[in-house]
Amino acid sequence: MEISVPSLVRIKPKALYKIGKYLRDEDHRRVVLLWGEGIAELLKPIVEVSLLSAEIEVLFETTVTDTEVESIFHMAVELPSQVEAIVAIGGGKAIDIGKYLAFLKRLPLFSVPTAVSNDGFCSPMASLTVRGKKTSFRVELPQAVIVDTEVLQKAPVRFLYSGMGDLFCKITSVYDWKLAYRKVREPVNDFAANMARSAADTFLYYDDKSLENPDFLRVIATSLMMSGIAMEVARSSRPASGSEHLISHAYDRLSEKPNLHGLQVGVASYAVSLLQEKTEPLIRKAIEESGFLAFMQEHPLSLRTFEEAVKLAPQMKENYYTILSEKGSVEKLLELIRENTILRSMVAED
Ligand SMILES: [Zn+2]
């Protein structure tokens, strides 16, 4: 089994200023630029100077607005044949499209997230739309991951809290994976499970969890990257996605206005930790110390949708054993949503 991981990783302040140099280091001189919405307005001057000084030629560039798979096919057909690399700069959409375009064209991808709200910027899955329906596609990992921590700091804080949620939840997802081994003999790749858990632990045991601390942002971004790579090692989303993700997927389906993935997953992770019991003190520590809890108390999820999502969650994925597959667990969690004061404070009546 061959695992190809990113060979160039720069997660630091002002990394964006060197993007031209990084492309040149990897011997890419002709590139395609994909911008997330509103991102070119903010960052184009920096990127342009950097590319120019490294003599990198941009053969095609566009701002991506939708993740419809058809538009990516069109883009793939139109792409000039001399292109040597795809550079995706933006949030989730631009990077998902970059991943799939790189996959279709067998080209390396430079993943340049401007916010780290989930582990998608370096994962082997691209979330795209097929005739209006969200679908996951298997793709390759990016060749390079470039995260400018100064850019992260300028993004709205909800993105960072969302990134934290998609990170500490690996504690409950790895628990579920091991439970699936005990209950239905689903094989566990121990290395991948350890990688995901260790990514969450790095965050959990980091002392100064302040958003003003650029080193903390580096830890969040690096750990999310590790979680994405754990999925590649496992050849499945298991290390990064357990019952908390099923609840979030159900919430996405039920809600007219879903929240950010990592915010939903983070709340759901605390919820399922109450069933898993031994993970609860860890998740509680994570949400209390990082400010995630306080943020969600100010911006709660919908109580009704959350309850419906808990009911729907076990049916979200076939043959996917989690704590919610245990007899009576859904009913127990529905009671806990009303009784547990911490959980109840992160969901509110509409
Ligand atoms: Zn996730």
Automatic annotation (TrEMBL):
Cofactor note as given: Binds 1 zinc ion per subunit.
Tell whether Transcription is among the UniProt keywords: no
Against Gene3D superfamilies, the record matches this protein to: 3.40.50.1970, Dehydroquinate synthase-like - alpha domain
Residues holding glycerol? 119, 166, 245, 261
Is Membrane there in the keyword field? no
InterPro entries tied to this protein: G1PDH, Glycerol_DH
> Which protein is depicted?
Iron-containing alcohol dehydrogenase family protein
Give the taxonomic lineage as stored in the record: Bacteria, Pseudomonadati, Spirochaetota, Spirochaetia, Brevinematales
